[in-house]
Amino acid sequence: MHNLSKIFKFPKISFTSIYRRIRKIIPEIENDNNNVLAAIDSSGFKITLRGDYLENKWHRKRKGWLKLHAIININNFNIIDYSITNEHNNDAKEGIKIIKRIKNKIKKLYGDKGYDSKAIYNELEDKAIIPPRKNAVTLSKGSIYRAKITRFIRRFSEGSWKINNNYRLRWNVEIYFSGIKRLFGETIRAVKPENIVQEMMLKVY
């Protein structure tokens, strides 16, 4: 680093100083997303480089992984809101928390069957473009919006419903997560809990 400072003529700085400055970074969402077509999904990130073989061989305690739950603008791939949880958090239960914070910004929200929740349908009403599970009933028990989609699928087909609602747009959130992992990797290298969360946040942006 000192040699580089001589070549490029900038003040000397140590790796410790760089580390401390990085740890002071607090990422914030800065966008004016309103009335947007959005998609929601989650993806896991490892918090250890140790593989399953080493964990089993040496009987190391499994560290698990973190889940990034995110809602993105499917037109420009900007993130609208997100949350970070452990691997055990249910997608739909975590999703409704995010949706309640930003539902006024959403025009349509695309999600997979993991977000088939009456609470989400009722919160977004006809803005929810989420296919119900196969065992969904056509009666309006708890959500008239979910029942409406179910009746359409039973009468025609899930494929027809997807075509009518441009459901293919949901794949943009898959592309978003794939891009993050290809660019930054799927492993979190930080050790301290607060640094782990910060590294996840920096990956998002």
From TrEMBL:
**Pfam family membership, one:** DDE_Tnp_1
Provide any one GO MF term from the record.
transposase activity
Q: Which InterPro entries match?
A: Tn903_transposase, Transposase_11, Transposase_Tn903
Q: Which GO terms describe its biological process?
A: DNA transposition
Q: Residue ranges of the Transposase IS4-like domain? A: 38-203
Q: Which NCBIfam families match?
A: transpos_IS5_2 (NF033579)
**What protein name is recorded for this chain?**
Transposase
What is the originating organism of this protein?
Acidiplasma aeolicum
Which lineage is the organism of this entry classified under, starting from the top rank? Archaea, Methanobacteriati, Thermoplasmatota, Thermoplasmata, Thermoplasmatales
